Amino acid sequence: MLHKTIIATLLALLSGAPLLKAQTIDTTSVDTLISITDSLIHKWVKEIDKGIQVQEGVIYRMPEDSMMVFSRDTFRMVKRRRRITKATIEETKQYWGYNSQIIDEASMKTVPTTIGDQSNYLPELNNAKSIHWGIEQQWGFNLIRGKVRVFTGIRYDIHNYRFQNNLTRLTQDQPEFTAVEIGGPLIDPIPVEKSKLVVNYIGVPVSLGFQDKPGDNSKFSAKVGVHAGYRVRTHTKIKQTGGNVEKQFDDFNMNDFYLSPFVNVSYGDMGLYMRYPLTNLFKNGQGANTQAIQFGITLKMS
Hints:
With 302 residues, this protein is mainly beta. It has helices at 2-15, 19-23, 27-47, and strands at residues 52-54, 57-61, 66-71, 74-79, 88-103, 110-112, 116-119, 131-144, 148-162, 168-170, 179-182, 192-211, 220-240, 245-249, 257-267, 270-275, 290-300. It has three helices and 17 strands. The strands form three sheets. Strands 5-8-9-12-13-15-16-17 form an eight-stranded antiparallel barrel.
């Protein structure tokens, strides 16, 4: 009872009332006031470690987006400044994977010749050695709280199509793609270790992406988009036994443009990707209807 009287006396003095009046204050009201005061003091003391000095007042953080600012004998509620989400992020990735092909059998043609079978489609590939490599620089622009972004950038790709038969040869300057399976060492007597077609593209990917954390330090991310590319160089490469290399540069009737939807899923610095082109590998009417699929892993560089 004594502490209630002391608190009532202090409250009366602060309010400017006479001391005697403070001593006769209704204890029921005092009990309620003490309960409210104790509750507020408990919260303020609990939060005091989170306070920071601002000009003449002390800011105490409160739930949600509000805080109390104390200044001598007054306080006010103000809105807490929200954390600003990074508007743009950058990332550089490498893509390592494999090329595979889907061919429309109805458009395939094979013609026997004196040196071997001649075809208008890519001969059987050594899928384990038909490697795809790409490097990509992307910028992500914030849409929703840094977790949903639209991405775009620039990308360079090298597609290697390694033929299963090392005696495969491509013919230059033809109205239609022409591959010949040479009929053996009597016709092509130089031993060959590899025969492949290499196609280079430069392009622009555009995608919509989600990441579990805003900024550059997210762990999980997923992107769905489309990649548009332009063919910048095409050549064959034949490596003979002994190390001699022969290259022939031509378009080999390959399509100049490349349009491919893709999906990327990453965790940390590694991920998986797959691309399925909408465009034919060859120019219209200059080869069998063929789509070249890429799938593999991604490695984040920055």
